[in-house]
Fold:
Amino acid sequence: MQTIKSVCGRCHNSCRIIATLENGTLVKVKGDPDDPRTQGALCSKGLSATQIAYDPRRVIHPLRRVGPRGDGKWQKISWDEALTEVADKLKGYKEKYGQRSIGFYRGQAAGWGFQYLMFQRFCNAFGIVGGMGTSECFVPRVIGEVITYGGIPLYSDYDNAKLLIFWGRQPAFSGATQMRKIFDVRDRGGKIVFIDTLQFHAGARADQFIFIEPGTDLALALAMLMVIVEEDLWDHEFVNNHTNDPGLRQLREHLNGGNRDGVTYSPEWAEKITGIGANVIRNLAHEYATTSGACLLTGHGLEAHINITQTARAIALLRVVTGHIDQKGCDVLVPPSPNYNPKFFFNHLMEPGYQEPADLRLFGNSHSFIPEGCRYPLLFMMQGLHATPDVLRDLRDNTTKATFTQGGNPLRMLPNPKGVRDAFLKAEFNVVCELYHTETTSVADIVLPAASYLERTEPEWFKYDYWLPVVNLRRQLIQIGECKSDSQILVDLARKLGLEEYFPSDDMTYYIEDLFARENFTYKELEGSENGIMFGPVMYNKLAQFGVDLPGGKVNIVSVILESMGFDGLPVYYEGSENRRSKPELAKEYPLNGLSGRAGPQYVHCQLRTIPWLREITPEPFVLINPAKGQELGIKSNDLVLVESPRGSIKLKAHLTETINPLSVYVPGGWEEANYNVLGIEEDVCPISSQANYLQCLCRVSRISEEGGH
Amino acid sequence: MRPAETSAYFVRFPHYQRESEWPLIIYTVLLQSAVGTLIVGLLWPRSWQISFENLLVTLALGAIGMLGAIGHLSSPLRAPRAILNWRCSWLSREILLSVTFVGMVFLAGLIYLLPVLVGSESGHSALVADVFRVLAGLAGLALLGAMSMSYLVPTRPVWNHLDTSASFYTGAFQLGWAVSATLLFVHVQRIEAAPLVLIACGLIVLTLLRIYIILRVVERLRGLNVYRDQPYSWLTGRIRQIRIVLAVVGGVVTPLFSVAVMFLPETFSATVTEGIWILAVLLLFLGEGMDRWVFFEASPSVIFPPRF
Amino acid sequence: MLKQLAFLFDPTRCINCYSCEIACKQENALPPLVDAQPGTTGPRWRRVITLEEGVYPDARVWYISMSCMHCGDPDCMKSCPSGAISKRAEDGIAVRDAKKCIGCRFCSWACRFGAPQFGTDGHMEKCNLCLGLLEKGELPACVASCAGGAIQFGTVDEISQKVSGRAAMKLAGATDPQFYLLAAR
Structure:
């Protein structure tokens, strides 16, 4: 029997685990009590590792399609044969049609840490630009923060916080292991507030739960700013000395009607839009501004509205005007990763004249390189991936002829699944690296078996919550079939493409060492460390001390970058793409808000539906409906209902719960049998970040039959 | 505070593996009808042959019922262990009484048969046999009580009421009456009007009593909260309707028909009467079986949410 | 000398994440049945239930993680016809003897908390407070992996130390369930 310390990779939170193996078989996984981020807790997904490891449905050999696409018939081939064919085809298309004919796509599952860096190295070496996986989540919010204070406050200082406001964030789904620390804040006398559309899971534990009309978070943020400015609750010292709007002259004017629409962003104005009482807004703003350790934790619940980046901007401004940024007990800017060796990436191959920066972290991409065909430069600058609308455009107009997808299932997870499928079918050659057969592999010509997090060794620094600047080593525990990690696949493919100059070794250790060449620790030291290695401190007050790498060298209350690109320098309220206020005529036929999002604490996107312990908790999706609305529509729990939007309809069972507003219904995302994306919106996107308005639309619900089909 | 019985993230608690309840349906229906048959048989004037047939049928019903009980266990070979906790467990007492009941019936039958078996010329020791029959009857009555107590558990609101006890007892006697009557009409070639009318009226009265109990149960369940959000509420409603129809047809219409036939000389015959009563018994058993199916199938287990 | 062990549950920390259920299933190798018998689950020695009270927007939603209550006067023990259930002398953990169980399921009717579960062999099985782990000085699986730190356990003395400053109520019940709930502040 062997116990090995490793890092979970079932989601992004990278909780430390202790794995037990017996004769090489993984038999148990539990949380590491020495992990300062979890104290030994582990979520239901991580605890199912033994079933994840040996899932019989996994694809474990390279496959080539037999017969037409969609028939689902495959022929087992060797890695050599598979990679040779892929390399020859890709080389052929690139030589004949140029770099835009090749589409290398990312999903969430391949990881945004080391695996993503290897992906970038490959793309630069091969002379192409990757795409997808970035418009949908996180980055559209990040834009709003980075252009305000030059970084992302990934570390919320729970140990010193007295007020936590969770805004569109559900820790039970994506950061459950930090809940002990979060509740400890309350034990020390702090307060926990949730602003959300569903009062469940962690939200049910809030000291104060604020229901908000879906998609109107920007209005709430603007009204809170108004209260803070008008009642003089802002941090004079910080604002006057370290931002580009001393005295808040511009912000005050903007909030008081000096904006493009002439609207005064008062709490009374916001009440009509958000449904939150003006006094509640005032009190919340007061509390946030006057509590000396106050955190604003935002999440995916804010996303998928066309006003997302301006919403993130407004929330960033709340931190700035109160001074609750990078301070004790607040949201702190921390180094998100070790300092990378710029030579690892070969960024200069795509961007001649690339200047190697002294500090290169997180995604490692150059922030000045904008490729051909990119309509969303701000998005691209953050993560180095083409926006999804650009990717789909290139597929639909035949610019992209060959695709290579890793860790994603766009044919289920993007809005307008049929349209996305048609787009992929237009490509002449599709390769998918996957653990399972999915809708996306059904249009593939070659499927390459990818390894799960249990089957690869790599450094891990990426996290979701409580982003301590520490890097740990995820260790390979088992080998399944012929599966290879996404990184290994790219290395082997690169060498087949004749890129040995950039990929001299097929041993991953070489690349890990190359990445950390600039750091003051070696891979060997990381390998030997029980508790990982800190690559930076948690330091407060850096903005005041060191300034910001933004126009003017100060925190941008007025965003110079946005103004220079023709967008609002200060956030102006505008509605989401499809709701009762923006489309009142449509709302007569489709009176309900159809919402979607994560499917529960035991699932990640469309993943893990085959894991028996997790599946038996929720084997099928239920649409959440308020009981008063259910009574009005004659629907009881377990009845089969039809949810229709102007774009399509789905059938699934209903569940009545008081945790949702009567005018909203919630369809959990990622289910093949009832895919919300059939209802959702593809074409309306945030003009800054390209994020589609894909998780809220107008819909109607009607009963099909009682109790599932009689 | 109500439990959200079928929370979206919490499918059908606590219906972990759905085990088939047919063994228990068979056990309860057959053993109850056995008790009823025996006791009705004791109360009616009879000859020893009729008594013996009554005992035989009782034994058959009881033995098949016991097979049902054993079939319900996942370790039937350990079944004898089931009586060990008779000091505390109503189920132990129930099993003990079932064994006693069937055993007494068997002994009574054996005693009746003994003279024939040993070739003795003396008459059948009806008195001794009757003592065992009475003992079996007492055990049977106690058994119905023990069965009721097993189902009076706070975690099953559908069962946890005197209705259950009333259903068991009235069901036992209604079935017992019908079976005994059928045995009588099969055995006797010439049926006289008065006994036939009496027996028919007896079944009608017992059936009306049984239907009254069923309607009380339905009324009570309508008021119970547990059926909200549970599966099968559509099915149990329909099955209960059919079950009442079966009871009416089997226990009221058929005896009335039998009486009517008797007053029509052209149609009346012993065979026809036999046929009508056999039909009645089958319909009544079918109805009681359906009743018991609903009893088990649609009885959600309600855990007690902590009060705080 | 009986030092009865009990669970201490803090409903103000439970977020319905199901860590405890899965940790328990992994520790005790509980077989899932979702593939073999769709619509059912395999044995769940620990179950998180949802309680909703009131109406939107003032609903109160609570999650309670329940396993065996290791009652002082267990109904399961009294109802078991073959005497397969007993309480350990040293710590009061209610255990079952697999060799004596006849699989009649009567205990599952008697238990007010849904603790008895049934494995593929048809015999009763349930939470045993991770006896094996306790013997090695480790925490029960649910306690170790609970995301919110809602589940704790110990003797009555140990529990009274853990709840300093907050009221802990013992769950009311005729069977003397060994389950303490921490009150909301």
